[in-house]
Design a protein that fits this description.
Elements lengths: L1 E6 L5 E6 L5 H7 L19 E4 L3 H4 L5 H6 L11 E3 L12 E5 L5
Parallel strand pairs: 1-5
Antiparallel strand pairs: 1-2, 3-4, 3-5
């Protein structure tokens, strides 16, 4: 199991465990993390799992796919340089301890 920290819009944090291969959207919804909606279930069609990946983790992730990049144009909160859809971030040992800020609002 690996660690993930979600920073809520009010600054509070939630640290949870994530299995290898799980995406951060399903991890958040399984742990009841407020603010990660994931309306589409992780098929990258709603952009309601928008997070901003904190340094240095943003540099450890691969590049966004073209589809993810396009979906980030439709998020409710303004996109930032480190914006990602957390349904596209898959847990593995290289990103153990990742910290993401939940975009506000999602809808």
């Amino acid at each position: 199991m690996f660690r993930v920290t979600y920073i809520h819009p009010d600054g509070q944090t939630s640290e949870v465990e994530a299995a290898d291969g799980a995406n951060l959207m399903t991890v958040a919804t399984a742990h009841g993390i407020e603010g990660i909606v994931g309306d589409c279930g992780g098929v990258m069609s709603c952009a309601t799992c928008h997070v901003i990946v904190q340094a240095p983790w943003d540099e450890k992730l691969g590049a966004r796919s073209e589809n993810e990049d396009q979906m980030l144009d439709y998020t409710a909160a303004p996109r930032e340089a480190a914006s990602r859809l957390c349904c596209q971030i898959v847990m593995n040992a290289a990103i153990d301890g990742i910290c993401v800020r939940i975009a506000d609002p999602q809808l």
